[in-house]
Amino acid sequence: MNDKKYDIEAIPGERWFPKETSFEEDMGLYWGDWGVNSEVDKLKAVLMRRPGKEIENFDAKEVRFSEEAIDIELMRKQHDGVAKIYEDFGTKVYYVEEQRDDRPNAVFCRDLMFMTPEGAILTRPGMAARRGEERYIAQALAKLGVPILRTIAGDGIFEGANAMWVDRHTCVVSTGSRCNQRGYEQVKHQLAHMGVEVWHMQQPYSNIHIDGLMNPISEDKILVHASQVPYDILDMLKKKGYEILEAPSRTEVRETFGCNFVALEPGHIVLPEGNPRTQELLEKNGVKVQTVDISEIMKGKGALHCITAYLKRG
């Protein structure tokens, strides 16, 4: 009988462990200086679409533009004027270079993506006349090296202006004609991975996006169209430390886009020309207000916030 025992070498472990950092921590190392978790932190980079061939021949009614004729070259000049304000402030302006020739609404880049601390959520527009624009946003983001975390899929609908950052851990997302329940659930699920609590807001039938009804000015001030914003949202903002400034003119909110401004930094905004009562209210409350003429752009029923997709804040 053989009593000899054999000592077999153990299989060694791999002897390494993964790098345990968050995607947000890795962003600057591997992707670039991107990320947004605020509507008011210093604006450092944006994505825009300078009006191209797509605005030269279209059916205004089909794409929900004003019936009033557009001065195409003036529209481009006004768009350039907005970009110059950003650049003079120190904001890097990137452009969507390619787009479909039949999509004049593509100038409104905000609707086509929503930026988070970890990258972009690519949207899925509600209007048939806008569907497909998002492909070229994806192309532009990929070229820049901006990570795309999710593309709204299935029967989900979501547009970027249906979401608003309150702070790093709080975001409002609205449902309505431009964001359905399936789209909302996809956005909420993605943000949950980043430790973000999502507050649901029912968009009124008379309006399509949050930025037509409310817009933060700083970390502690927000302009709202009071009759159209649900109480629970305003109560949450109040408890977060926001001072609620009520827009003084329904006409300015609805006709000249008094809520549709862009904060360059806390307490410093760019506002469309033609909103004197709103401007007066803001300035009386210590807000620095720059105005810009975007009369031709507004014929597309959108304004400053609509044409500006944020890539980096803070």
From TrEMBL:
GO molecular function, one term: arginine deiminase activity
Signal peptide limits: none
Keyword annotations: Transferase
GO biological processes: L-arginine deiminase pathway
Protein name, as recorded: Amidinotransferase
Organism: Emergencia timonensis
